[in-house]
UniProtKB/TrEMBL annotation, chains A, B:
This is Recombination protein RecR. It comes from the Bacteria. PANTHER family: RECOMBINATION PROTEIN RECR. The keyword DNA damage applies. Transmembrane segments: none annotated. It comes from Nguyenibacter vanlangensis. Keywords: DNA damage, DNA recombination, DNA repair, Metal-binding, Zinc, Zinc-finger. May play a role in DNA repair. It seems to be involved in an RecBC-independent recombinational process of DNA repair. It may act with RecF and RecO. Residues 79-174 form the Toprim domain.
Length: 197, 197
């Protein structure tokens, strides 16, 4: 396949989600045909992003700043927190442009199968913000799976003693890393149709 | 979407063949989650490949050496030349492991629509090798399209005066950048079933 450097490039590309061996070869070919115009700019964008990416210590978003652009946006309602499983879910909601508050990215759900317990969820910053009285609404946008429902119930229990209103987005919507497949209108409708949990 | 560095990375990934905006975001997220373990190694593999890639001056293959590994392999029959449209076709035939000779990558076909004429095809090295008497068989593995057929006929005309046997791979096989979608057995059968042109 033309040298170990090229084989290594194909192997690394093939590990990306959504790229199998075949599409990895096709992508590698496209890059190899234009090393200066296409491959080097992509390589440099990756190095730049790898150097600059931070996990927001407040919400768990990935950004080049910590706290992230969303958490520091004065135009957002910091008292309305949408709880999602993944950064991909957060990005999907941001593309839809329907949530005017901030987020909490759990980084997963409670899961007996994969051994994820409460300590493995990124939930402490949310609880701290609530304890400080800075939160008036928590919107749970978790997956409509057993693990998503378990996590939602656990969070409701944790928040039961506080004065925070807890709501859940409309059911039947695939959440939990799968928000990405929804069009913006459906996402907007799901968020509008949230109901008290 | 978390900083211009991240947006730029997603935009560049989305330009790769086979990656739409959605899969580009998913790939970017996977890389951003592991900047040291995944993103930097891929960036470095790209820079390394961009620095080392060469177009073989003999056959048109992409490799880290010129002439390429195939052209310089003493175990191959340099007198049996398989003519393909793209490097992707060459790679597909190599994966199938059925061609024991060398290649000529035209880089396209004659095409009135896209204005590709004889001078735009990488065919001079093949003609030179034939003029030197070093070739006994030319196998045309071109696309079963109008342009592929036109190119095959034009090449046959060019070789008509020589003592070279010209054959074509079995018809009905999608060639021309599309060999990639065939399993190895089908590719092998197509090459075995070549007939005199
Ligand atoms: Zn944040
Ligand atoms: Zn070569």
């Amino acid at each position: 396949m033309g040298g170990t450097d090229i084989e290594r490039l194909i192997a690394l590309l093939a590990r990306l989600p959504g790229l199998g061996p075949r599409s990895a070869r096709r992508a590698a070919l496209a890059l190899l045909r234009q090393p200066q115009a296409r491959m080097l700019p992509l390589a440099q964008a990756m190095e730049q992003a790898a150097r600059s990416v931070r996990t927001c210590s407040s919400c768990g978003n990935l950004d080049t700043r910590d706290p992230c652009t969303i958490c520091t946006d004065p135009g957002r309602d910091a008292g309305m927190v949408c709880v999602v499983e993944t950064v991909g879910d957060l990005w999907a909601l941001e593309r839809a442009g329907v949530h005017r508050g901030v987020y909490q990215v759990l980084g997963g759900t409670l899961s007996a199968l994969s051994g994820m317990g409460p300590d493995d969820l990124n939930v402490a910053p949310l609880l701290a913000r609530i304890a400080q009285g800075g939160v008036h609404e928590v919107i749970l946008a978790l997956g409509a799976t057993v693990d998503g429902a378990t996590t939602a119930h656990w969070l409701q229990d944790r928040l039961a003693g506080s004065a925070v209103a807890v709501s859940r987005v409309g059911q039947g919507v695939p959440m939990g890393g799968a928000l990405d497949v929804l069009d913006d209108g459906t996402l907007a409708a799901a968020l509008m149709a949230r109901r008290p949990a």
